[in-house]
Here is the input.
Amino acid sequence: MKGLFITFEGNEGSGKSTQIGRLAARLLSTGREVRTLREPGGTPIGEEIRHTLKHSPNNQAMTPEAELLLMNASRAQLVREVIRPGLQAGEIVLCDRFYDSTTAYQGYGRQLDLKMVAAIIDSAVGKTRPDLTLLLAVSETTSEHRRAKRQATQPILRDRIEEADRAFFVRVARGYEAIAAAEPNRVRRIDATRAVPEVEAEIWKTVAPLLGRAV
Ligand code: TMP
Here is the structure.
């Protein structure tokens, strides 16, 4: 059985984790092996890198270039340790963020050179590319609102990336739109301002046909 690699993308508060959980449950009920991963992270090495990137008290002075390389160090490990073996074994691999996050956040958000960003991504992933990317799109106002709600309901854990200003997240959203426009065959843009079950139904409509092809 052929593996299937699906990635989820979107700004903070776009509802990715909820939708990944719902899709994973549906896929499991079809009898397929499903693996859910997140980036940065997903391996013991990657989770340490995630802590450095997001929560470490020593990360205040991190430069955009160091951020770019750490994201891709985590990714290089995840691709080789987990994603490739999983796909080889016929698993459906769902990943909460993958290289489009780097293009959107480090390329558009931090404004690093897009060619350089693409070259670093290439060396991290090689030929391992998503079969489908679901871009959950919400307005910046919705994203800000959901971000604030999360911060209010979850234990206070400082997150360096979420400390960026509004203009940064607006550039990230613009980056995602550019990616979706450039790769319409791979990237499916989903309006995630709607209710959770509606978004879930559209995702299932997009994924179900791929299962036929993957089996
Ligand atoms: P999250 O798992 O809560 O989405 O946190 C991951 C954060 O890392 C989020 O702010 C997006 C950011 N990120 C990048 O800036 N570049 C990347 O390549 C990835 C994978 C994530």
Remarks:
- The helical segments are 16-29, 44-54, 64-88, 99-109, 114-125, 140-153, 166-182, 196-214.
